[in-house]
Design goal:
Elements: H1 15-34, E1 38-39, E2 45-47, H2 48-51, H3 57-62, E3 64-67, E4 74-77, H4 82-93, E5 99-108, E6 120-129, H5 134-150, E7 157-161, H6 163-171, H7 174-177, H8 180-188, H9 192-201, H10 207-215, E8 220-221, H11 224-232, H12 237-251, E9 258-261, E10 276-280, E11 289-293, E12 307-313, H13 314-319, E13 327-333, H14 338-349, E14 354-357, E15 368-377, E16 380-385
Parallel strand pairs: 1-5, 7-9, 13-14, 13-15
Antiparallel strand pairs: 2-4, 3-4, 5-6, 6-12, 7-10, 8-9, 10-11, 11-12, 15-16
Helix pairs in contact: 6-12, 8-9, 9-10
Amino acid sequence: MGNWLLPESLADILPAEARRIEELRRSLLDLYRTYGFELVAPPLVEYIDSLLSGTGTDLNLHTCKLVDQLSGRTLGVRADMTPQVTRIDAHLLNRAGVTRLCYCGPVLHARPAGLLSSRELLQIGAELYGHAGVEADLQILQLALESVRLAGVRTPRLDLCHPGLVRAILDADPAAAGHADAIYAALGEKNVPGLMQLSATVQGVRPDTWAALRRLPELYGGAEVLAQARQALPGLPGVTAALDALATVLDALQDVDASVDLADVQGGYAYHSGVTFAIYAEGWHDALVRGGRYDDVSRAFGRARPATGFSMDLRKLAAGLPPAEPSRAVRAPWGREPALVLAVQQLRAGGEVVVQALPGHEQDQDEFVCDRELVLQDGVWTLRAL
């Protein structure tokens, strides 16, 4: 095995792509600042009991673990930054009103999320704390859609869901609740035969529960889906509340290509408590953005706060865009003459990339496209087009 080989589902990012990812990071963080979101930077590694507080089992399976040589306690390399930002809001900032926080940093998955997925992500996102009303959900949705448009995604498509709907159906039938993981997996894959097989092997689950679960993969589409769901699903308070919340959000998004998918329950890390969403676009095999309401996570940090937000992987976002092109640059000769040094400094201060060719390498410029050069004409250093 060569020393240049990387572990499975990890990859290097080469110069042109790395530059574009960095430009996306800067542009998006600047966008979030204009909305009033403050940047935070939690650590890459935390004690595992803090890192996974209030998040369920899905995040635990994706988290790489190691032993702290100083304390002997188990540490986790973060697989998702949202719980960390929630800890900062609930425990460190401790503000009474609305708090808007954004972040960007690497996360590591113990296993890839899918066949084409990487284990190392550059996660960027925004979280809004302290407001339980639909206004917070709508602001987060607006910011998520503006984020992908800023990146160059022309036709984003928004899918809405509500995990409380399935949770209400399962909670009403204790026998079904005992097999929640298998049911969620089948629903997330829209695996109706799998649900039917479960209904034939699992004992004690009521027939009306199976009937409701089998209808969920078919409940996908526009606003008409909500009316169909009210007819097809049991009139449980949790089901009604979930459908009402989806209807409120959908009504406010008349100018957005939005739909409802009541079986999209596998996205994220199972800590969501309200309306969730995913943004898809042509050119990407999976959701570009996932987010939604998660009011219960901060309770584990001693201060329950309403919360909603979203995150995405900048590497995945950049990978679906047209191939990155080398940067344009100015070619300049090597030298320490004061006039040449001053000319180069002035160009760089104006935002130009100036590559000074080292002796013997005047023609070796693979990393940039030099479309101009700095030449000495009549005693003055001047730009000349190439």
